[in-house]
Amino acid sequence: MKEAVILVDHGSRAPEAAASLDEVVSLVQERRPESLVLAAHMEIAQPSIQEALQHAVAQDALKITVVPYFLAPGRHITEDIPALVQAAAAAHPQAEVRLAPPLGVHPKLVEVILERLAESKAL
């Protein structure tokens, strides 16, 4: 069964925000070449969660995991994204759609913070 991963961020009008998510998608794709890895945005930007899920199914992915590219489990994580994923999944009953937890509190994020501290510059 072909698998897909959809990374979802908030969405922004700023092109560099979408470009940043696209870079993360590329990095994940490199590490998971057997999966189709896609970007989606909760709102404002395209593709939407529904569009990304539809694209995954069109590429014959029948196991799809949506990963919120968020740090904290606020309202978007607990309400908005689950509702959008459920609505999108309802249109594709042949696919197994799962929702992963947000990035949240994770020891590997501490490593990233420490790297960013080392890269800091005076203003």
Short description:
The chain is of the alpha/beta class. 45% of the residues lie in helices and 22% in strands.
Residue windows where pLDDT falls under 50 for at least 5 positions = none
What CATH architecture label applies?
A: 3-Layer(aba) Sandwich
Q: What form results from the Cα inertia axes? A: globular
In the CATH hierarchy, the third-tier topology is known as: Rossmann fold
Major sheet attributes: 4 strands, parallel
N-to-C series of helices and strands:
EHEHEHEH
Span between termini: 51 Å
Can you tell me the number of structural domains?
1
Which SSEs are present, and which pair or pack?
Blueprint: E1 2-9, H1 15-31, E2 35-41, H2 49-58, E3 61-68, H3 75-90, E4 96-99, H4 107-118
Parallel strand pairs: 1-2, 1-3, 3-4
